[in-house]
Design brief:
With about 210 residues, this protein is of the alpha/beta class. The chain has one domain (about 1-205): Rossmann fold (3-Layer(aba) Sandwich). The protein has helices at about 1-15, 30-40, 55-60, 75-85, 125-135, 165-175; strands spanning about 45-50, 65-70, 90-95, 110-115, 140-150, 155, 160, 180-190, 195-205. The strands form 2 sheets. A 7-stranded mixed sheet has the order 3-2-1-4-5-9-8, with helices on both faces. A two-stranded antiparallel ribbon has the order 6-7. Strand 6 (about 155) and strand 7 form a beta hairpin. The radius of gyration is 16 Å and the shape is globular. The termini are far apart.
């Protein structure tokens, strides 16, 4: 974990938030999927995994969501996001952790959102640990939204190898406990004028039997 954390601390310590390739002023697709998952219930608990300096938390607060957590391995990224939000940061739970190793409370989130973390998990054991944490932390019947580079996306990002997915292979990583509700593709334009293909999957976690 330490080498990975050092990598991301260096990234966020050396680049402005709008000068990383994944920056987008507003995550419109993510917001649409979160609104579909929450069905207008602003009390639903949402965790943004790998949220970093993303403006998703700003947009969720502006829409009135009351229970938001942001998890990231980079403490520098979380500090930048907190400073940007100012007083509003006090209404957000900030979690500095590696998502594959984090000790998350069980059945605590209604919606798990991840844009561009899962594709960095190149080892099968990392992906298994990630999925275990999703299944543990998500409430039965809860929703998971995961976005990765698509089949035509980059093979590297921020100097690191990634795994590309289509909707079927991404859903397949999560297994039969997760039902695929919707999938889509998006062409993201980076701050440098290049494009990246992303794939999104919205799934629900099966309700556990009593």
């Amino acid at each position: 974990m330490r080498d990975v954390q050092e990598h991301w601390e260096k990234v966020y310590g050396s680049k402005a938030p709008n000068q990383v390739s994944w920056f987008r002023p507003h995550l419109e697709t993510s917001i649409r999927l979160i609104e579909r998952a929450t069905r207008g219930n602003l009390s639903y608990s949402i965790v943004d995994v790998g949220g970093g300096t993303s403006t998703l938390v700003d947009d969720l607060l502006a829409r009135g969501y009351q229970s938001i957590s942001v998890l990231d391995i980079s403490l520098a990224a979380l500090d930048l996001a907190r400073n940007r939000l100012g007083q509003r940061a006090g209404s957000v739970q900030w979690i500095g952790a590696d998502v594959t190793q984090a000790a998350l409370p069980g059945a605590s989130f209604d919606v798990w959102h991840d844009r561009a973390v899962f594709h960095f998990l190149t080892k099968p054991e990392e992906r298994l640990a990630y999925v275990r944490n999703v299944a543990l932390a998500l409430k039965p019947g809860g929703h998971v939204i995961v976005s990765t580079f698509g089949p035509e996306g980059p093979t590297k990002c921020s100097g690191l190898d990634v795994v590309r997915y289509d909707a079927d292979s991404l859903h397949g990583e999560f297994g039969p406990r997760f039902q695929l509700v919707e999938s889509s593709k998006e062409i993201h334009e980076t701050p440098f004028g290049t494009t990246q293909q992303f794939v999104y999957c919205l799934c629900t976690l099966e309700s556990r039997k009593p």
